[in-house]
C-alpha cells in the first residue's frame, strides 16, 4: 500500500505482447526493425507513436473528443510533462493556483527547477472538496495583494488524492475563470482512463465549446500512461496544448526527456490496435470498480466512510471521528499509530494540504 500503481490489468498487456512479437525489436519476429528503431530519432517522436497516443487519449475519454497527433509532445513521465509546461508558461517567482487537497509532489514537479510557486485554493468537505469560483477569486485576489503574479491554474482531473472527477459545470466554471483573468489552465488528466463508475469523466476539451469566446491558447493538458495503463517505468509523459507557441517550445525542450524509441515502437503497435485498447480500458475499469467496492465495503463494516469516489487509484478516508481533537497534531498522532501499530501505509491529509484534519489517502 501507499504506492499508486495500477497493477490490475498487466495480464491483458502481457497477452497482447505474446500475440504480437513483431512489436518488439528484441524478438526474432521483430529484430528486422532494430536498425530503424535504434538509430537517432527526431525529437518530434515517431509519427505512428503520436498518432497512437492521440488515439488512446480519445478512447480513454469515451471517444467524445479527438486529439491532433501534431500537438502531442513527449516528456519523461507526467513529472517531466508538468515541469515542461511550467518552463513554457511561467518565469521564476510566478505562481499557479492549485485547488487543495492536491498532489504533494507538485512542489517538486512544478517548482524545484522552474522557480514557480504554488498558491493553494482552499476546498473543504462541505461540497465534497469541489473547487468553487468564490474560492478561486479569494485565492487569486489574496495572491495579487501579496504581489504574487498568478500565471495560471492547475487541476488534477480525476483527482489525486480524492479519487473523484470534476463535474462538467465546475469545469466550465474553471474555464470561464481563467478566460476572464487571461491566465492559463493546465489540466493534469493522467487518470482519465481509470474512471470506474458514474459520473463519467469530462475532459477539458469537451467544455471549450461551452465557453463563449474562449481563448484556446490558454488551455493545456498533461497526460501519461503511468496510471491508465500501469506502466510508470516506461516514462511516457505527454504535453498536449492548444497553444502553438507552447507546442513548439515544449517540443524543443522534449529532447531533455524523450520516450525511448524502443518504447515508442512497441506502443505504436499496441495503442493503434483498437480491439486491444477497447478491451483493456473495459477490463481495467471493471477490475478497479471491483477492488474499490471490496475495500470501501470492508471499511464501512467497521464504521469508516470514504468520500464517494469514481476514478483513480485512491480512497479518501474519513477518520475525523478517531481524532482526539480536531487538529493536525492529532492527525499526525493517529497517522503514526496506523503506520507503527496497524502497519498500514496511508497518507495524512495534511500532506496534501487538506484544510480539514482527519482525512487520509489510501492507495
Mind explaining what this structure looks like?
The chain is α/β, with parallel strands linked by helices and 363 residues long. It folds into 2 domains: 11-275, Aspartate Aminotransferase, domain 2 (3-Layer(aba) Sandwich); 291-362, Aspartate Aminotransferase, domain 1 (Alpha-Beta Complex). Helix content is 39%, strand content 14%. It is built from 12 helices and 11 strands. It has helices spanning 10-19, 34-38, 47-60, 77-89, 106-111, 133-145, 168-181, 204-207, 244-253, 261-271, 274-301, 328-342; strands at residues 72-76, 95-99, 117-121, 150-156, 184-188, 219-224, 236-241, 305-306, 315-318, 347-348, 359-362. The strands form 2 sheets. Strands 1-7-6-5-4-2-3 form a 7-stranded mixed sheet. Strands 8-9-11-10 form a 4-stranded antiparallel sheet. Helix 4 crosses helix 9 (244-253). It starts with 9 loop residues before the first helix and ends with a strand.
**Mean of the pLDDT scores?**
95
Tell me the structural class.
alpha/beta
Helix content: 25-40%
How would you describe the oligomerization state of the chains in this entry?
A: single chain
End-to-end gap: 6 Å
CATH class of the largest domain: Alpha Beta
What fold name goes in the CATH topology slot of the largest domain? Aspartate Aminotransferase, domain 2
What is the assigned CATH homologous superfamily of the largest domain? Type I PLP-dependent aspartate aminotransferase-like (Major domain)
GO molecular function, one term: pyridoxal phosphate binding
Keywords: Ethylene biosynthesis, Fruit ripening, Pyridoxal phosphate, S-adenosyl-L-methionine
GO biological process, one term: ethylene biosynthetic process
Organism: Rosa hybrid cultivar
